[in-house]
Amino acid sequence: MKPSMVLIGATGAVGRSVLRQALAGDVYDEVITLGRRPMEQQHERLTHHVVAFEQIEEHAALIQGRDLVCTLGTTHKQAGSRERFIAIDHGYPLRTAKLARANGVERVILVSSLGANPNAPMSNYLQTKGRLERDIKALGFDSFVVLRPSLLRGGRDEVRVGEEIGKVLDRALGFLIPSRYRGVHVDEVAARILEVGREAPRGFQIIESEAIPVG
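RE: above sequence
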């Protein structure tokens, strides 16, 4: 029997691609998604639970499987405040990971960000991502794999002006940009997550942006 995946962040750009590719592929027998709203998508291998991440401990019994995949994330604009951003991008994933660890989940696959560093100067975004990496690593999972994509291309419902400008520059001047800083498509990030799921590496690993595309 193939393993199961618990996915948080399934409604985001990367999360939607992970879900689509996982259900179309053969890496996981079951995909369990946790989210704030009902999900219209149905599939024989998909189980969705509506949860309040503010009270995620009340849903601890739902976090069962071999892998926890976290693509959950927001922006300061969407969150509305610095504190709310930290709660969503650090608090929710870390609390979920702690419950997963207690339930015997073996591995965490986390989508972080290029430049994530708990001591990043003048960037709450990169500091928060770096602290999450650090704090999940400290939980002692058998395997913890971090993906650090650069600018994400494709799959977004909203238009982010800075990202759109970056995409134009990436397409026009990509040959001048070091590979680590070039845009990476959300489908490539999702495909790498499933490759990690298939390979089941042990220990701690960081996959930087230039190494994300498969093949």
